[in-house]
Structures are given as C-alpha cells and as structure tokens.
Amino acid sequence: MTTIQALRGTRDILPDETPLWQWVEATARDLLQRAAYREIRPPMIEQTNLFERGIGEATDVVGKEMYTFEDRGGRSITIRPEITAGLVRAVNEHKLTAQGSVLRLWHVGPAFRYERPQAGRQRQFHQLDVELVGSRDPRADAEVIAVATTLLQTLGLKSLTMDLNSVGNSDDRQRYRDALVAFLTPFKAELDDDSQKRLQTNPLRILDSKNARTQEIVQTAPNLLDFLSADSQKHFDQVQQYLTDLDINYRLNPRLVRGLDYYTHTAFEIQSADLGAQATVCGGGRYDGLMSQLGGPDTPAIGWAIGLERLTLLLKQLAVEPSTAMDVYIVSRGEATAGKALQVAQALRLEGLAVEMELRGDAFKKQFKRADRSGAALCITLGDAEAEQGTVQLKWLTSGEQSEVSQTSLTQATAELVQKVRQVQQAT
To answer: What is the dihedral of CA 55, 312, 142, 140, to 10 degrees?
Structure first.
C-alpha cells in the first residue's frame, strides 16, 4: 500500500525543529507584550470578497494564488493568503476603535498561497503579524519598524539591511501610475509577459519584476518619490528622522512598492544577506485606507509580517539554536522501581525541572549512554538494589561526581536539588 505523504508545498515541522519555532514565538511574545501589543486570534477562513476588496483583484495573490472554494451554503470562501485583511475585518466587526484608542495587535499563525514551493517559501506558511491601528503619527511608523528590528536583533540575526520607501497617498500614486504607464508603454514588447499584463492592471508591480530586461528598463523609470505631495513628503521626512534618532539604518528604494494594493505612505522590507534570492525576512507598511475600504471608519494603520519559515531557515544557517537539553535524566530498571521513578520524575517536574524518564527497560549500559547524550546535568538511577535499600544514585554528568541519598530525602529536598542543577548548568 502506498504511503500517504504531505501535499506539495506543505511540510511537517518535526520535534527536532519545534524548539526553535517555540523559542522564536516566545521571544516575540515577550517583546511585544513589553511594547503594549496584545494578541488577537482571527479565523483562517474568510469570505472571498474580503481579500478581493482588501488586497486588490489585480494582484497576483488574488488573481493566481488563493485557495478558494464554495461551501455548502453557496458562499465563496477563501483560506487566508495573508493575515492583515482578517485582522482589519475583526477590528471593524467588533468596533475595537470605537473609543478612539490606538490598538496594538499581533497574531501568529498559518496562511496559504498556491505558488511554486522553494526554500523558505511554502504553500502553507506561517507569519508573525504586527499591526498598529488608529494613528497617523509618523512615530507609529518608526515604532513598528523599531519593534521589528529589535526582535530580529534579539534573535541573533546579523547582516540585515532595510529598504524604505513612500508610496504616498492615493492621489500621489495615481499621478505616478499615469507617468509610469506613459514611460513603459513604448517598451511594452520588451517587458516580460506578467509585466505586459500588469501595465494596465497594476503597473507599480512592474517595478519589482525579477526579469532582467524588465529590471533594466525600469532603472530609468520616473522616481515615485518625485510624485509625493507636500503632506506625504513631510510624513516621510519625519519617519526618516525618527529612524535616524533610533539609530536604525535604512536605504531609500523608490522601486519598493510591496505586492498588495492596500499600502499607503511608508513601505519597508528588512532583508538578510544570508537568505540568498529570497532575502526578505520582514516586510510591511502603512495602509490608511484599508479600514474604510472594508466597510469600517476612516482609520489609519501600519503593520508588518515576518515569515517564520524564512526566519527559522536563516537562524539554522547561522547556527542559532535554543537549548533542548533536559535538566535530569532518570534511569530505572525492574518492577520494584517503576512506581518510585515515576514519583521522583513528577516531584522534580513540579519544581520546574525538565525531566526525562526511561520507559524502555533496557540494560543499564544502554540507558546510561542515552543519559549522556541527553545533555542533562544530573542522572538519577533506581535499580533493584536502590529499591531494596530505599535509596537513589545521583551522578552529575559533567563532573562525574556521584553520591547516594535516600528516596525520602530526595523528594523532600527537591528545592535544594533544583538549586544545584541550576548552579551546575551555569558553571558549564
């Protein structure tokens, strides 16, 4: 019988990998909590028109990449291809901005796009998403960028660069769009096929085409920053000044437009030189019109997303790995010790120690080898002799120091044992 395998573009995150994911998520949770961001958990399925209206029907995401189906009630349903639109829908639906307060929200979870799988990019992928809703202040732009850079640096990433741009307001973009179309039309036959189609539907996306000839053509295209209104330019100047004040380095990239139609004003991408072609590890920007576009009040917002597949791939390449070592490894053999070993493990776990207990009943020699490989600070041994005498054997695996204590004293003095385990770990 053929073994059923995971679908193309999906992958199992196996137990050897999950500690890295858990560490990333825990680090993010701690940092975001300290910055006053609160978690929100929207559903993974939404009405299709949420993404058509929010992301834009002319985008590749909506036109080519969404997983859409009709449910039994005849409704068109889409498994979310990104997270921001769903968060905005939730904010609108539950009137979370009714009191005029600034919302700081975050969410982590999977999203789905039908695209060609490659390193760091899957059809099911995971994003950490951060949104600040309710402020037009340029300090909001600087804050969310600072939160992103702080998180990446806290995780130990190096070789990071940030591209920064302003796509202005809707009037700015329309003027630029007209100028860009006028510039590119004489070159239409030389553009790649996708760019030829985008010339009328979404010409700004031509700027980040990966086709070599198209990139050569757009090198001399009009500069988006030249089309900013006075207000848009003032906002962008203030954002740059705040980033400079925070010692956050950036480079201006007037061809950075991002892939979704809802962006306004600030757009940015943080990249790593260690990721190769798929260099972007974090991307985002301001989307002041999306709330009203989806039926809510006119509310400004800015946010970003980090792709966790790319981020964990990068961390592995940089050998950034959280410790998965146990604190204590319990070796036991024989029916007389089975229950006592379980009691010892439970007592130590209740005191906050990570404890692995042998369950296979192998010979002591094999068990001791596994204890050495576990990375534990302490090995506790219970055998027939210990069961008869009411003792346990303690062996500190780094020093080889051994001692024998009574089972009663071990379970009654767990706090002291925890303290010594921590001291041994710190010393090594």
So the answer is: 50
Contacts of the segment 238-246: beta carbons below 8 A, 24+ positions apart: 238/138, 239/138, 239/141, 239/142, 239/164, 239/166, 239/266, 240/164, 242/138, 242/139, 242/141, 242/142, 243/142, 243/145, 243/146, 243/164, 246/142, 246/146
- Looking up tokens 């120091």 gives 401
Q: For residue range 64-100, what is the model confidence (pLDDT) as tens digits?
A: 899 999 999 999 999 999 999 999 999 999 999 877 7
> Distances in Å between the alpha carbon of 201 and those of 68, 211, 297?
22, 18, 27
Start-to-end C-alpha separation, the chain: 50
CB 315 within 8 A of CB 156: yes
Record the pTM: 0.85
Give residue-wise pLDDT tens across range 134-183.
999 999 999 999 999 999 999 998 778 999 999 999 899 889 989 999 99
Contacts of 247 (CB under 8 A, 6+ apart): none
Q: At what angle do helices 414-427 and 335-350 cross, to 10 degrees?
A: 70
Task: Return the beta strands (E) in 210-263 as ranges.
Answer: 251-252
β-bridge pairing 378-382 and 391-396: antiparallel
Check: CB of residue 419 under 8 Å from CB of residue 378: no
β-strand partners of 77: 47, 69
**H helices of 55-169, where?**
60, 84-93, 138-154
> What distance in Å separates the CA atoms of residue 173 and residue 116, rounded to the nearest whole number?
30
Scanning the structure block, which residue is given the tokens 């100028």?
179
Strand boundaries in 251-377, DSSP class E:
251-252, 264-272, 280-286, 301-307, 328-332, 355-357
Strands (E) in 82-123, as ranges, are 103-112
Asked if residues 9 and 123 have their Cβ atoms less than 8 Å apart, the reply is yes
Work out the burial of residue 230: count CB atoms within 10 Å of its CB; fewer than 13 is exposed, 13-18 middle, 19 or more buried: exposed
The tokens describing 46, both together, are 């939404």
**E strands in 40-123:** 45-47, 67-70, 76-79, 103-112
Do residues 271 and 265 make contact, with C-beta atoms less than 8 angstroms apart?
no
Q: In the numeric block, which tokens belong to residue 283?
A: 């991307």
